[in-house]
Amino acid sequence: MDTITWNLIDEGVSKRMINLDENCENRLVRVECYPKDEKREGISVETVAVSPVLKRIDKEKLPMTQRHKLTKCLLDKNSIRVVTYNVLANCYSDTSLAKTDLYPYCPLEYLDFKYRKILLINEIKNYNADIIFLQECETEFLDGDLRLAMSDYTAKFKGKGERTKEGEAILFRSDRFKFVKSFDISISQELQTNPIFSRLWANISKDSERKEFIAGRGTILQVAQIESTEYPDHHFLLANTHLFFHPEADFIRLLQSIVSIKFIEKLKLDLLEKNPVIKKLGILFAGDFNSDPPSQAFQYILKKKIPIDLMKKNDKDFIYECDGDLAHSLNLEAYADFPFTNCIGTFEGILDYVFYDSDSFELTKVVPLPSVEKVKENTALPSVFIPSDHLALVFEFSIK
Q: Start and end of every Endonuclease/exonuclease/phosphatase domain (predicted)?
């Protein structure tokens, strides 16, 4: 093996970033650490990158750079900026299915999470959001990267259980909000045990195959109650989810939406009743709903009742004599005027939303998505410039 010649490119104390004064493209990087203080000196350790440095990317070519120009400043106390983003978990992208079937157009070096996470951190951080909802977020990414890069945020995580490494994460600015309590649930468990859904679950249980399938879904609803530091009597319920993905499972997603909305509705009523100090309780319900605007789930959330006219005949039997009880009273709206929020080689569509309580918020700004031409410049997502198969949605709201 040829001897490697190493050149010193940077040094310092407790460094997190390396300043590259020379081109390191296609070269290996070695990091040496010498632990010491005024009196002691420890044993040095070193590590060498397993692959060469990739070609440096011109930041101006990144679509998020143009979006960041619209989010340079933090908002004042009467407004909030909200982001929702499915970041494409490493446990899914680092599979043979992803590499050969789902994203065959994406070079492996750009599908590698070690590359994608650098773009993700840069993108998420520079939206300067007040509240961030992440889906397909792994604890390793949240704890090992995001918390370090965004130490001025409080982060809460809810995993989907033992079958997968990923889950949902909610981050919010620590100077503007104080965490109060989490109310996370397994949607399938809530459906089976909450008396609100007893008639619905009894109907479903008549079909043993459907019952078993629904009970086996690991979908969760992450809910965090936070308090404004500027207006202590003003609280928020932040709800985050990632509904079941199968394209033929519109009814399953309707069920998951019903359980989520009814849980949030009851929680809001209980908190207001038991906590007279709370004068306002705004709701933001965000995530990857795997549902387009005409879908049953989307229509239920906005129109407050089960869209029976959209349902298949067999599915209607499951809501027999309980559809009235499953209507809700939340005044939720969502902006969905996008060409798509998810774009892969075989599919593109609007799947991601921030549903906001119109009694508490007014939508004042939508940060534009990258152009269709830019997104498809490298066939589809993810790509060298965009680190997920979803696009981040960024909205600004005034607080009523």
A: 84-390
